[in-house]
Automatic annotation (TrEMBL):
Pfam families: MA3. InterPro entries: ARM-type_fold, Initiation_fac_eIF4g_MI, PDCD4. GO terms for cellular component: cytoplasm. This is MI domain-containing protein. One of its GO terms (biological process) is regulation of translation. It comes from the Eukaryota. The keyword Transmembrane does not apply.
Length: 714
């Protein structure tokens, strides 16, 4: 068997030798490792040191020959080896006199040997040392020089990853130092693709990092948000990474946290910048002072490059709007320097030192404060308008995205009016809860014409019910009575309730029972005809979020209104009339209505009559007042009570719907009334015509008797 293998092997060597004779000597030799099954292999089982099973002699793997049988470095073996396959024994040194000599080949061979296979491991070690030294010295310049000296820019992504991963496990000081270092090295030492790759690697390894750093998700999310704010990482990084990461990985949590918790928050740039103490712990006032100094220096020297260098050294790209604002103010104060300052802003915009959003924000901030600035610069508004026109005409400002200066003054007036009204409304409501004087509230609102504005009416409704919900049943009942007594614009009332429903989630933090209370206020408003049922549905249609507290409020309000005898139950839920009693029976109400009409007819005051009507707190039952008053007018032929109806309709105590019901009920009882008043039908016809002329009744209301069912004529 061994002899056959030797023959096959010898034959193979002969064939290889033939091939080698035909090969171009310039081709580098190829090495083939021999199979361990070869009889000449050092690992062959046929060696002399092999012992049988159970032999006490140990197998010795080392050769006892004084000569090293391993291949020579760069060669193809020593004594007893075959050498390299296709090796012809010729010298492999490149001969410059050879016709096939290529100088580039020798250069490439030499350059490849300068970076051994372990160069990345060497870079890792040096990068770790550089990071440690940076945290100890806080020397940005020295760190940048050391990275350059490594001369391995293709591995800088590892430096980014190592820097941040080490900072994540340290204090806020080191985290801030890491963020500052990356912002400084970006583009100058570390190429943008390398930094992008470093962050990608870090996000991918979030699942491993969290084992040693429990708050990895939050800290890494903040590093990513900081990089976006510092303009060294594009915002698109977030969406791209989400598409590459497994859905259940910690990396997805990191990206989501960065986007929703940090980058979506109001004033997020300032918050993120100050999260770890800020760059070198600079305060906002320090930055403002530096900005003012660099602008003043620029006005004196006119050196734009120096100004841009100072802007870059501030390392506050999110605060560049302050540079714009301050430059504009200086231009308004020092008219001789206007062109120079505008030229600086123009070139800063064109060169990308100040982006368009910061430019717009700077102009916008100045528009907001132009009224205060006018105290020192009388023509501030006109000057600012001219500056905006110049910037827009030169193409470095989008004027259409700015607020209008003419409208800004009007808006300021409106804001001041709303603020003053809120204070007055709160005072009026508190006084009302103490006195219960509805007419005083009406007088206060009418004196300032607040009740004619839909916006202010909505504010009043919201304020009234919000205060009442935080008090006892007495105040809740009083609020409902007041709301049904006021003649507020319908849009204002609807918007007021809409605001209440939308803010229910926030209100619940202070008033836990907001669902029950607000639902009852809505239902009571429908019963009192302050809101129409379809308006309640409109509020529901405009509400977003089915799981919100506002949705629960509307759902409960609808349920309460659908219940049997809902009107009476809703009216008595808070005791009725602002008292602690459970409410009056219908007969009691009728008796009180009769007495107040008799008192007024006998010489009582109109104001007192309306006070008594409102204290009944049953506006849905005002048709009984109208019926009794009209019957009394027809019986006594005394129109004093007609004047009560006339005044009541004009001030909103009696609604058209209640008028319709009241006149309809009189029409239904004409047969009985004719027994005491023979000309009752003729009088009724005459009064119907007068009511139509006064717009109390619709023109379709029949002047003759008709049947009324559920408030509708047939």
């Amino acid at each position: 068997m061994d002899s056959k293998e030797d023959n096959y092997l010898a034959e193979g060597v002969d064939r290889l030798q033939i091939v080698a004779d035909d090969v171009d000597p310039s081709i580098s030799p190829i090495k083939i490792t021999m199979s361990p099954k070869s009889p000449r292999s050092p690992k062959s089982v046929h060696g002399k040191h092999v012992t049988s099973k159970g032999s006490p002699v140990k197998h010795d793997r080392h050769s006892h020959s004084p000569k090293d049988g391993r291949p020579k470095k760069g060669g193809s073996g020593g004594k007893g080896t075959w050498g390299g396959i296709l090796e012809t024994g010729d010298d492999n040194t490149v001969d410059p006199n050879d016709p096939n000599y290529d100088s580039n080949e020798q250069d490439n061979s030499h350059s490849n040997s300068t970076k051994p296979l372990g160069v990345f491991d060497e870079y890792k070690k040096k990068a770790t040392v550089i990071v440690e030294e940076y945290f100890a010295t806080d020397d940005v310049v020295s760190t940048a020089n050391e990275l350059r000296e490594l001369d391995m820019p293709e591995y800088h992504y590892y430096f980014v990853k190592k820097l941040l991963s080490m900072a994540m496990d340290r204090h806020a000081k080191e985290k801030e130092m890491a963020a500052v270092l990356l912002s400084t090295l970006y583009a100058n030492v570390i190429d943008p693709p390398q930094l992008y790759k470093g962050f990608s690697k870090l996000v991918e390894s979030a699942d491993d990092l969290i084992v040693d750093i429990p708050d990895t998700v939050d800290v890494l999310a903040l590093f990513i948000a900081r990089a976006v704010v510092d303009d060294i990482l594009p915002p698109a990084f977030l969406t791209k990474q989400l598409g590459l990461l497994p859905k259940d990985s910690k990396g997805v949590e990191v990206i989501t946290r960065a986007e929703k918790s940090y980058l979506s928050a109001p004033l997020h740039a300032e918050i993120i910048e100050r999260k770890w103490g800020g760059s070198k712990n600079k305060t906002v006032e320090d930055v403002k002072t530096n900005i003012n100094n660099l602008l003043v220096e620029y006005i004196a020297s006119g050196d734009k490059m120096e100004a841009f260098r100072c802007i870059k050294d501030l390392k506050v790209p999110f605060f560049h709007h302050e540079i714009v604002k301050r430059a504009l103010i200086l231009a308004m104060e020092r008219r001789a320097s206007e062109d120079r300052l505008l030229d600086l802003l123009k070139e800063a915009a064109e060169e990308g030192f100040i982006n368009s959003s910061q430019m717009t924000k700077g102009f916008g901030r100045l528009i907001d404060t132009v009224d205060d600035l006018s105290l020192d610069i009388l023509s501030a508004r006109d000057i600012l308008q001219s500056l905006i026109s110049k910037a827009a005409s030169e193409g470095w400002l989008c004027a259409s995205s700015l607020k209008s200066l003419s409208l800004q003054k009007q808006k300021q007036i409106e804001d001041d009016t709303a603020r003053v009204f809120k204070l007055k409304a709160q005072y009026i409501i508190q006084e009302y809860f103490l006195s219960g004087d509805i007419l005083e509230v009406i007088s206060s609102l009418e004196s300032e014409k607040y009740n004619s504005s839909s916006e202010l009416s909505a504010m009043f409704v919201k304020k009234l019910i919000t205060i009442a919900m935080d008090r006892k049943n007495r105040e809740k009942e009083m609020a409902s009575v007041l709301l049904s007594s006021l003649s507020l614009p319908a849009d204002g009332v609807i918007n007021g309730f809409m605001m209440l429903v939308e803010s229910a989630d926030d209100t619940a933090l202070d008033i836990p029972a907001v669902v029950e209370d607000l639902a009852m206020f809505l239902a009571r408003a429908v019963v009192d005809e302050v809101l129409a049922p379809q308006q309640l549905e409109e509020i529901g249609n405009q509400l977003t979020g089915q799981d919100s507290i506002g949705s629960k409020v509307l759902q409960m309000a609808r349920s309460v209104l659908k219940a049997r005898l809902s009107g009476e139950r809703i009216l008595r839920c808070w005791g009725g009339g602002g008292s602690s009693r459970p409410g009056w029976d219908i007969e009691d109400i009728k008796d009180k209505i009769g007495k107040l009409l008799e008192e007024y007819d006998s010489g009582g005051e109109l104001r007192e009559a309306f006070r008594c009507i409102r204290e009944l707190a049953m506006p849905f039952f005002h048709h009984e007042v109208i019926k009794k008053a009209l019957v009394a007018v027809m019986e006594k032929k005394n129109e004093r009570l007609w004047g009560l109806l006339e005044r009541g309709f004009s001030v909103g105590v009696f609604t058209p719907d209640q008028m319709m019901k009241g006149f309809g009920r009189v029409a239904d009882s004409l047969d009985d009334l004719a027994l005491d008043v023979p000309d009752a039908e003729q009088q009724f016809t005459r009064y119907v015509e007068r009511a139509k002329a006064a717009s109390w009744l619709d023109s379709s209301f029949p002047a003759t008797r008709y049947v009324i069912q559920n408030g509708a004529c047939s």
